[in-house]
Write a structure and sequence with these properties.
This protein has 343 residues and is of the alpha+beta class. 40% of the residues lie in helices and 20% in strands.
């Protein structure tokens, strides 16, 4: 039996040496090392042997098996290295050739404005708050001093889902959520960026647009604080020489209410096409938080005051980047969007 084992061993070594492929090497492994192979069949003869003879026979089989296994693995490594070398020789890369440029995307102007406004106000100590885009009528209107059938609702031609739910027409509902979460204890200092929805569609209005609401509530807040805040914001956003002026306006959730204009950054206030010859550009609306709004949301209006303002993200983008049609922001035109690559 030992002579037969030696013949099998020698034949295995020849087959391994002559093998020139991974697949063929696997066949050699199966031929000599599988459970049904001739070599492994000799293991069945172990039961017919005793003592030293059995031990010696087992050692011979194991030695032959281990050696064949090691030589197969060595051959496998040689074959893989040879195949890799052949592949490298076939796929020579000319490193002097210019590479193919990978097109890089850019941030949408909408997001550029959001990021910049967030950065400015976070630098002033504001937190960023978020809220749902599908709102309860209670938060979108009623808690902001706009009860049912109030004429002010006509200012926001809204998308109602049912009698109690509406696609939010402003980010102001986040004010109510934040105020109620504070249980009547200030201070509050937040901005709330997000998408809002109204039934509008022309060159300067869209059924979907962006708004950043600001809210500050504390025990000693005045209209002067609002003015200084807006001046700092406008200078950071549009240039250090910008001036801000306030005009009386009306919003149901603020009293007094104002609209803020900034001096035209195109002509420096001299008058041009952008500012329609006035030297001023309308920027945003705001005012002091209405006492009734404070009261409905858990704050004592005799103890706390606050101001609020709303910045149009799309309008700010149009002003800052000279965009003449709001619909371009939502057309997914790559020719338009690639202009804002901030590389």
């Amino acid at each position: 039996m030992l002579e037969k084992l030696n013949e099998i061993y020698k034949k295995a070594l020849v087959d391994i040496e002559e093998c020139n492929g991974i697949e063929g090497l696997q066949n050699v492994r199966n031929t000599y090392l599988s459970k049904k192979s001739e070599l492994m069949s000799f293991m069945s003869h172990m039961k017919d042997l005793v003592g030293e003879e059995r031990i010696k026979f087992g050692q011979v089989i194991n030695s032959i098996k281990d050696d064949i296994t090691n030589k197969i693995e060595t051959k496998r490594k040689d074959l893989e290295e040879k195949r890799l070398q052949e592949q490298l020789e076939k796929e020579v890369i000319d490193f002097t050739l210019p590479s193919v440029e990978v097109a890089k995307g850019s941030k949408h102007p909408f997001q550029l404005i959001v990021d910049e406004v967030n950065k400015i106000f976070i630098g002033m100590g504001y937190d960023v708050a978020e809220g749902p885009e599908v709102e309860l009528d209670l938060f979108n209107f009623e808690l902001l001093n706009v009860p049912k059938d109030h004429p002010a609702r006509d200012m926001q031609d809204s998308f109602f889902i049912d009698d109690t739910h509406v696609m939010r027409s402003q980010t102001s509902p986040i004010q109510a959520h934040v105020m109620q979460s504070k249980n009547g204890v200030g201070p509050i200092k937040i901005i709330a960026p997000g998408k809002v929805y109204r039934r509008d569609d022309d060159a300067t209005h869209s059924h979907q647009f962006g708004q950043i609401e600001g809210l500050v509530i504390d025990k000693d807040v005045s209209l002067a604080n609002l003015l200084s805040t807006l001046e700092l914001f406008s200078r950071k956003m549009f240039g250090e020489k910008r001036q801000v002026r306030m005009r009386s306006s009306y919003f149901p959730f603020t009293e007094p209410s104002i609209e803020a204009d900034i001096s035209c950054f195109e002509c420096g206030g001299k008058g041009c096409r952008l500012c329609k010859g006035t030297g001023w550009i309308e920027l945003l609306g705001g005012g002091m938080v209405h006492p009734h709004v404070l009261e409905m949301n858990g704050f004592d209006p005799k103890e706390y005051q606050g101001f609020a303002f709303g910045i149009g993200i799309d309008r700010t983008a149009m002003l800052k980047y000279g965009i003449d049609d709001i619909r371009k922001l939502y057309a997914n035109d790559k020719r338009f969007l690639k202009q804002f690559n901030t590389k």
